[in-house]
Model the fold of this input.
Amino acid sequence: MKIGILTFHRAHNYGAVLQAYALQEVLKELGHDVKFIDHINKEIMGAYKIVNLRQFFIGKGLRFFPELYLLWYRYKRSVFFNLFIKSNLSIDSNIAFDSLEDNYDAIIVGSDQVWNYDLTGGFDEYYWANFKNKNTKIKIVSYAASMEVPNMSEKEKSLIARLLNNFDSIGVREDSLKEHLQPLTSRNINVVADPTLLTDINLWNKIAVRPLSSKPYLLLYQVRNNSKNEVLAKKVAEKLNLEIVYLSARIDTKNSSFCRSASPSEYLGLFKYASFVLCSSFHGTVFSTLFKVPFYSILMGDGKDSRSISLLKSLNLSDRAISYNDEVVYKPIDWSKVDEKRERIKQASINYLSDSLK
Done:
């Protein structure tokens, strides 16, 4: 079957490109011909500009010189991401959107926060499959589509209810999202795993790059930076006699210099070779579990923790969720039990994909 994927495949975001790569590889293993449909959302790509003039003048110019200093690192990371995308993702840049249904047997929307209309600058009709001709037989499937659990207006609920009818099968990534969307459609909504959890660990081992740090380290990875998380990391690192490697989703002066422009492969290596991980990130939590690194997922309490909470619950690891002011308990993880849980989730998710594409 010829399948087109609609997701944030060009976003210079670690989770975005790695989930895209994972879904591509899983579908290829299932015997499909897979391409990414080259839809680019301007709001998503605008967040990863090398030069963002607004950032230069935040706080009456207080960010001007740090931002100027970071330009080189932004450029380097942009190059690294583009190389990874070019080398690893098969992208169809020549298909017009009004002819999608003539060129594909099925279209998969997701994974990632493709339905988060705050991120995409409103409802992006392509991620809601609002191009389907009702008279065609093309399959339209959402796989692990995500959005922050929204406080939807009645108008938004009505629009989403109509848009969900575009899909032949609906798969979302979080239990909480299913709870919000299920009342809006008569179709059954399935909760499925992020594509990064469906692959064999050998896929990630093959492309992970060992970091330059030569000493045992604690990795602090943040998507929403918070200085209180740094205080927690220092306490844990001191207890375990580890150095701290700082990495955030954005390029920041606080990031450790050797990984300030980390490529997706270097990002994977930072998790693989860490002695301990603290993260405020869904995919940081994913890769900590995949590489079996002792970790805690820091919940920020800002309404954006649902993805990590749902993942930890599904792996029976809810006790690995903490806040920055909690005491860390150095209790080992029974990885064999985690593997059993993940294998069941993986098989159920692959079954969903296979059944949806029949």
Summary: The first strand starts at residue 2 and ends at 6.
